[in-house]
Amino acid sequence: MKVRYKSPKEIGIMRKACMLCSEVLDELLDSVKPGISTADIDVLAREAIAERGLKSAFLGYYDYPAVTCTSLNQVVVHGIPSRSDILEAGDVLSVDFGAFWEGYCGDVARTMIVPGSEPLASSKKLVQTTYESLQHGLAQTLVGQRLGDVGYAIQSLSESEGCSVVRQFTGHGIGRRMHEEPAVRNYGDQNSGKKIKPGLVVAIEPMLTAGFYDVEILEDDWTAVTKDGSLAAHFEDTVAVTTDGPWVLTRANSKPGDIGSIELRV
Ligand code: MF3
Ligand code: CO
Fold first, then answer.
1. Structural domain boundaries, residue 88
2. Among 61, 170, 201, 221, residue to substitute to test ligand 1 (most atoms within 8 Å of Cβ)
3. Structural domains in the chain (count)
4. What are phi and psi of 119, to 5 degrees?
């Protein structure tokens, strides 16, 4: 399999696809409060998809049954929305959303703490560290760097804050398909791996735990939980490499050479 580099025109279409995905995800996060279920979030997402003329990237993907992944507390990724998962104040909730617009895919995920009580300092630290690690990874997604520099940046920031980086899942190239070459590891060595070139578009998605990094998959064949039961967090942005620098397509406040920021919900 080969990396499919995107033209500036394709990146323009992907910007629009990614902004729509990011708007949907913000709307979903705005709705989060104690007492709602993760299935309620998925229902809202289905409505938002219809309103915007999007096509879910998740529904039916290897038979995945929903349009979002809602991963609660010890769930790392790929939590399936459920009527029986009722949110409580202080829960660590990750919501992942991906969809196609005009044939191109956007992929974005955020972790928040369910409002309503003073969150545990340890939960807050995990969410903040996962976001910081993504910032460090995005800043390395530059012409002249290598993919190992991205993984190294994510891993070193995460471990310096006492968190572990999950190894079983990676980020990925993205475009006309949700998952394209290359895989983007969240760990690695500086100056190793594929060279980063203009037109590369990747989803970078660090998954961190407050304990050990091993995960296991539940009976439903999707839900990935930490083996040691520790809390996990996940942030994901889709980023295009331009000659002016990284452009985080899933953030309204990013432009080429400026990765922008996210307001954390902690
Ligand atoms: N956003 C996830 C990823 O980056 C995809 C979720 S898996 C799916 O890999 F089956 F729900 F699509
Ligand atoms: Co992804």
1. 8-248
2. 61
3. 1
4. -70, 155
